[in-house]
Design brief:
homotetramer, about 260 residues, alpha/beta, globular
Chain lengths: ~260, ~260, ~260, ~260
């Protein structure tokens, strides 16, 4: 295995496509969004590239007994009445600091190969608490890009994301800008504690407006309901534990 | 020391051999199995290769005062009325993520050199608790391989192993598949807390059926008995500790 | 992204300049000092180089929604009646041991390119407690350099800094000396717990004397006042917590 | 800084010298021994090589205000009526797994350059408790080497050192053996908690017998006395703390 191995699985003709990145990160928002996008547009998409790398975790995933080596996948998506897309999905980011740089450069190479000059990195921005309303926070590689984003409700905040954007999403902006891309990151607010399908939906709704495609959200909403049940149970359990820890009069009488 | 150094210790003519990997992992199952296999078939085996690498821990092991640099060994085994084998054993896996890729590629190079196109990685799948019955869970590089395995009792489970297979065992499947091998991983159930000779035996019994050789298990069973004594003592000690922690009436009287 | 990428943003003619390094470290003293120096001498300075590297954290910082890839910057500063300067600033050190060596060599390359043969690394030396007086401790690459420093109040102490000087500051002395530079490190005493603008001021006052430029300190003093308010509040909170933990007669009566 | 930089500080003619390694490790035994050896034979020794490397910690040590880049030193020692020596000393081991391999190969290159074919790595073997008698445990690269060592009191134990020998000391045996050296490691028993001059003395006394030189031990004995005072004080403090933690009748009366 070289530092990088790129399998050309198939080819596709795309017209000025937009790269959309959906790798795991905060709240798994980017991954949920990218996976859902592909699911909904499966009829219009073709797997074109697989990236393998020494920089990925040294493992295989196993599904129904069949193994698959860690990789990232790029699908070419050609929607009617919408922008052509290159969708990047995967289960892992790189495992070292330099690895992130290596991987991001490879992704940009592939994007250039297909004629892309714009990209969206999708992710989450942690709020530290469970939330009801899901704003989408933005970051762009150049100031001139802000207006169309603000028009569809993306918020550019003074102090967020605190600490910047780490990993492939951040480097797609940083290295993308150096290589002539118009790069943006859309981050759905999320608690940061859980996988968050509602946050993924918020991000995809912005993307729909900007890239003119339409998605159905039924499966994401189903997942959101499952998550809410889980959250409910955790909160119940925590309350029970707290009640158990307060010493009652009976406990004290036993000691004294 | 280069990234890899392979010593050709001896040569051997093998007919369509199967690579069998027994490096340490969960419950040391793979290592116990690999070492036992070599012990039992010692009369039919020749040490052919030693692998040294910067990716191994920087240490020597010491036995009776004599040092030995960390390495992995490959033995050629030619059993009558059974498949020829290349058995990989060692005390350590690689020490870094990229190191696992480097090491696994080297192992596959050697396997190809001897004409192998099939491989078995041996390991354990942790159950999190002590068990009585030892199932063997399987993972294969291609779906078409499942049937003969199921026929000898290997179980292909929907959600196991959770988290996939990490390290050389996993990469033997992942990189092996890319290089044209038929690759399988046999994992004996094990608690994950202890070295588990019974799990190793379960795995070897499956291998016996698939590769048509016969093993004696006396020394493995002896080790299993030793382990059971150790487990028994640990359980006794834990019970005593628990009894000591419950405050008795006497303790309470002292405070009050 | 190569191991290093150096953008030549602009050129400048400097006469025997001195390299001044202000990267983050203990108490952020070096960074505060470097940033303040640039702020005050902005009228006389030009950004000449940006360093990007795989050895920097794989992230972008985001300010008002606009992203910027991690980098270090070098400004050429030409002050009237003072030594010409090359000022190195940035938000991060390298992320690995070998990375520090790589980065420091690159910085020295640029310094040589502009004709520098002297350098100052700025930092802090931790005292472990809040202090009132701010001494500046020194380290030099050659004994002959001590006198002029002592004359302006720099202290060379027998056992400080204990553990030496780690990171780019230390390597600027170590590698700088091997490459023919006269290298010195000025370290302001600081508690080590907080960002310390007073310590940065102490260091800059020494630099002013040695390099014959003049700085205004109003903005640094403002930051120092803010820090003192923060410290005051932390001390108040700690006192309150301590008072709460002492069991009162009332608490004891409740148990007994 | 390349991966390695070796400064040829001076040359020396040695006759079949023995490489003696004294880098820091368990109980700092090897370092104390190596430093003491050089101190005592200073009149007969010349600094011949300095090794710098990206694999060393990225720092300078500072003594009386003067900086020194992390390095290892090799002195050539020509004693009358004793074996010629190449003594390796330093303050640090390599900082990564692969770094140990790189560093050890460089040391062996220099040893070969000076015509050495035998080596001694000096270190400590931890007992886990303070001891009175200091045995010296041995490990050799080949079984045939044991006898002369046993004759001077070196012990070859069945299960020690458990876990083998890690770092440059271990690799000097492992890589040394592959490069045709007769390699041995002498390890003084030590608690593992403290710097141990008595253990260093025990190791040097064995070396004296094997290599036919004579050392004075006054300064090492002084250090041993200092250590014993420190140990005494720590033991006193621990006893006081224990006495304070036992609740007295008075304490209990207060609660009840």
């Amino acid at each position: 295995m070289d530092e990088l191995e790129i399998d050309a699985v198939a080819e596709a003709e795309l017209d000025d496509p937009v790269l959309v990145e959906g790798l795991p990160g905060v709240g798994h928002v980017g991954k949920l969004a990218g996976d859902h996008l592909l699911e909904e547009l499966a009829g219009d998409s073709t797997l074109v590239r697989r990236l393998y790398s020494r920089e990925f975790p040294p493992k295989v995933s196993v599904e129904d007994g069949v193994s698959e080596l860690t990789c990232a996948e790029i699908h070419a998506v050609s929607v009617e009445d919408g922008r052509d897309l290159l969708v990047l999905t995967g289960d892992h980011q790189a495992q070292s600091n330099t690895g992130h740089y290596v991987l991001t450069d490879a992704i940009l190479d592939i994007a250039e190969e297909f004629g892309a000059s714009e990209l969206f990195a999708l992710g989450g921005v942690p709020t530290g608490e469970l939330i009801e309303e899901y704003a989408v926070v933005g970051a762009v590689s150049d100031e001139s890009m802000c207006e169309p984003f603000e028009e569809v409700g993306v918020e550019f905040r003074e102090d967020e994301p605190a600490g910047g954007i780490v990993g492939v999403s951040g480097l797609l902006l940083g290295l993308g800008e150096r290589r002539g891309f118009e790069a943006a990151c859309l981050m759905g607010e999320t608690s940061g504690y859980l996988v968050d399908p509602k946050s993924a939906r918020a991000v995809l709704e912005v993307l729909e407006e900007l890239l003119e495609f339409e998605l159905d959200y039924e499966s994401l909403d189903d997942r959101a309901e499952e998550m809410e049940e889980v959250v409910g149970k955790i909160q119940e359990m925590e309350q029970q534990q707290q009640q158990q820890q307060v010493p009652t009069d009976d406990d004290l009488r036993y000691i004294g």
